[in-house]
Amino acid sequence: MAVMIKEFMEKNRGRKTFLEHEVKGLLKDAGLTVPRGMFIGRDEAFSAHGLTYPLIAKVSSAAITSKSDVHGIRAEIKNESDLRKAIFELREIKNAQGVLIEETAPQGVEVIVGGVTDRQFGPVVMFGLGGIFVELFKDVSFGLAPMTAEEADLLIRQVKGYRLLEGYRGQPPVDIRALIQVIITVSNFISSGLVEEIDLNPVALYPTGAIVLDAKMSVYSL
What we know:
By secondary structure, the protein is α+β, with helices and mostly antiparallel strands. It contains 7 helices and 10 strands.
């Protein structure tokens, strides 16, 4: 994993942060699933050739920390006319470097998986349920990296909302093995000594599989 990350950093020497599609490309190489999509630069001609509607379009910029805060997301794009309008609007946002177009992922149970190097404890992995669980209830758990599968499973079970993952009120249980794979991958990234912070928010979980819907990463200088 460290070799792959270092090669990625060598190709992007001098940069500490990366655009969403760049991080997702690295995660895909690491074995995780991301939506099918394409990046369109600020001045590039565009086409959704090969992608299936409905689509989602997001502003892409290393200078924008929250896409929602700048109204930088357009969802439920159902045709080319709507796509052209969305791309035009997103390109007009201050500091926009381009637009990421992706196929809309199915509705799933959303969780957050992140990693950071703590001054006191070293590399740490965070896990939590998405939406109001993390925003209002701060329902998150932390563990030291690198992690084994057993330690990742324990991290998952520590959150109060774990019952939602087991299946709740008729909903099917999610694929815990896929979630463990996501957590271990983040654990390997943050314990490599190369990654300063990584944030997968959200990750959509399904009865089979998981998809990383958004991703951010910063690295230490080589």
